[in-house]
Amino acid sequence: MASLPSSVTVLDRFQVSPPPGSVPNASLPLTFFDVVWLPTGPVERLFFYPFPHPTSYFVSHHLPVLKSSLSRTLRHFYPLAGRVVPPRGPSPDAKFQIRCSDGDSVPLTLAESSDDFRQLSGDQSRGFGRVYGLIPQLPPTDDGSIPLLALQITVFPDQGVSIGVAVHHVACDDSSSIHFVKSWAAACNAEVLSESPLSPLPPLCDPTVIADPDGLYYKILTEMQNLKPAGPPPAPLDLPPVGAEQGDAVIASFLIGREQIDRLKQGAMARAGTTGATHVSTFVVACAFAWACLVRAQAGFYAGKKSAHLLFSVECRGRLEPPVPAGYLGNCLRPCFVEVSMSDLIKDDDGVFAAAEAIGRAIKGLEHGILKGAEGWLQKIVSLTPERPMSIAGSPRYRVYDADFGWGRPIKVEMTSIEKTPGTVSLAESRDGGGGGGIEMGLVLPKRDMDEFARAFVMASSFLGT
Ligand SMILES: CC(C)(COP(=O)(O)OP(=O)(O)OC[C@H]1O[C@@H](n2cnc3c(N)ncnc32)[C@H](O)[C@@H]1OP(=O)(O)O)[C@@H](O)C(=O)NCCC(=O)NCCSC(=O)CC(=O)O
């Protein structure tokens, strides 16, 4: 594990449990949507809030409320305090499970940083090593189990606070993890204001709502074992963080404003004509824009390639038949694959629209069956790895900037786990929220590629006349 940057000092470490006796002793089997994430790692976000007070004030006035509201929130999100354990015994239908019991707890680290809060929570390129120390680390285990949640609060004295959240992807997707963060924030906010919480509804912790009539769980597990001959149980990938490995990796954000999005949508609709064969949305044009910029930023890699690939997750709760409740705690994602020819993608005046058309067609294609071809998804993802598909993490629909712990909206939200898969772009609604309607894109790249991306971004914006 990489060491913390010298600007970060750990002040204390806590274990926070749901209130005693408030959660069931339960074993929740993983579903076919979960099991595919076993060999991955945590999805991490940092929420930055201005906080112009000393650390001692934070510790005496805010930390106790953050801890008690976390405890009460874990009562509803108790699987996140549990651990994934491998199947026990010889039974062929034994499954990986999230084992939960009274007394489970999650690690919460309190740290202090002497770094410049304004700079760290800005949009401009910052060395990834500088944010690395703010990210909570899931604790190591020696029994093959997988802990699911870790939290870190870092105080920048008289400047601000960051809240780091790391949730292992095998536990849940972004829909659920943002549900957890917003529920914690609402509970904390309510305690600060001494009002009854306007909390989101509690989650549904019942994996039986994911029907599996075709036995996808075992088909996917078998596929995973075939792809990884070392055999079961699939070991978590211990990928070295780019920030720790590559001193020159930087993180930066780019904003696509509402006006720009409207122009992109108009252009995409004009290209698609009236056939209705494609789907044009903010998500589609934002991905297309990022894609066209990324292939320019990484021109060396793409030189001589015939096509470029894009991979993104589709949230399936409302698309399944019957639909799964929106508040279901777990994973409910499928991959969506898009390929576009390089000659189309790099056209200055039309590349973004060609990309948008291809993405829109792929989304439209989901109407032919949301689980169609599920047995082959993993194989396809693995086979695409050498092609370095651009992947999308996060989604503007989850409104991460609404997470208010009582200090107002975050000044910045970063999805730092994108560093683990080079070529990943994180998406969120822009900080000004739904009103402004812009999109924020986050990237982690070697500094030279980031400079090229920034150049491509400005150039592509100029073609739109913005
Ligand atoms: C497949 C999609 C990406 C396609 O998105 P689109 O926006 O193009 O299409 P759509 O049908 O969802 O939406 C069409 C229009 O309705 C609006 N709309 C629809 N549903 C909405 C909702 N629940 N909340 C707010 N707006 C919504 C959209 O903003 C859009 O309008 P307008 O055009 O105005 O915008 C999406 O449907 C989807 O599944 N999104 C969630 C993906 C997700 O969960 N990603 C995180 C994965 S986990 C992760 O990332 C962690 C990791 O792996 O690292």
From TrEMBL:
Pfam families: Transferase. One of its GO terms (molecular function) is acyltransferase activity, transferring groups other than amino-acyl groups. Keywords: Acyltransferase, Transferase. The keyword Transferase applies. The keyword Transferase applies. This is Uncharacterized protein.
